[in-house]
Design brief:
Order of helices and strands: HHEEEEEH
Distance between the termini: 19 Å
CATH topology of the largest domain: HU Protein, Chain A
Strand content: 25-35%
């Protein structure tokens, strides 16, 4: 499912125009990105939590060539689904 698919779903299941549905979806995604960029977590009850984790630098190895290289420290977004979400998926 793409962002455009989500926009179309919001549009078809609400009384919003396509333009309004697109603005709503874009605003939600933009807000989530901005909050995560600040290092805060986003909790959507019944869905899950998004949070930013910091990964330390470490040595890695290219599996094809076997050459070792340092993997630099970085931040990654982590998602932990809620219990209800996990139960629905399973």
């Amino acid at each position: 499912m793409t962002k455009e698919d989500i926009i179309k779903r919001v549009w078809s299941e609400s009384k919003l125009t396509h333009k309004q549905a697109k603005e709503v979806v874009e605003t939600v995604f933009s807000t989530v990105k901005n909050v995560l960029a600040k290092g805060e977590q986003v909790e959507l009850r019944g869905f899950g939590k998004f949070r930013v984790r910091e990964k330390n630098s470490r040595m890695g190895r290219n599996p094809r060539t076997g050459v070792e290289a340092e993997i630099v420290a970085r931040k990654v977004v982590n998602f932990k689904p809620s219990k209800n979400f996990r139960l629905e998926v399973n």
